[in-house]
Amino acid sequence: xxxxxxxxxxxxxxxxxxxxxxxxxxxxxxxxxxxxxxxxxxxxxxxxxxxxxxxxxxxxxxxxxxxxxxxxxxxxxxxxxxxxxxxxxxxxxxxxxxxxxxxxxxxxxxxxxxxxxxxxxxxxxxxxxx
Length: 130
Hints:
The protein is mostly helical.
């Protein structure tokens, strides 16, 4: 996997693995995908997403949706109504992230407790050595 980005001229800006992780490896992306995947017709309006993502700012949600739209993961549809209505729909490309994000989720469920325990042990050792 990482051998594809092992100094063959690919940088963090062109390596497919790093590009993909930059889209999904943050606090909100996986939750955002989950809500769009579970929505009827895989479509939600901006405020529906904001309500479901408790604690996300309007600016942060806009930023993530723009990144997903730019990458072709969501389609943004603006309806000429008053007040304006904007919907976000997962594209086929966006839906294709279901399998890898599920795999990541399964790994986290299986090994997350061990990772947390290791962090606590490390922290304890570090503080007792001081």
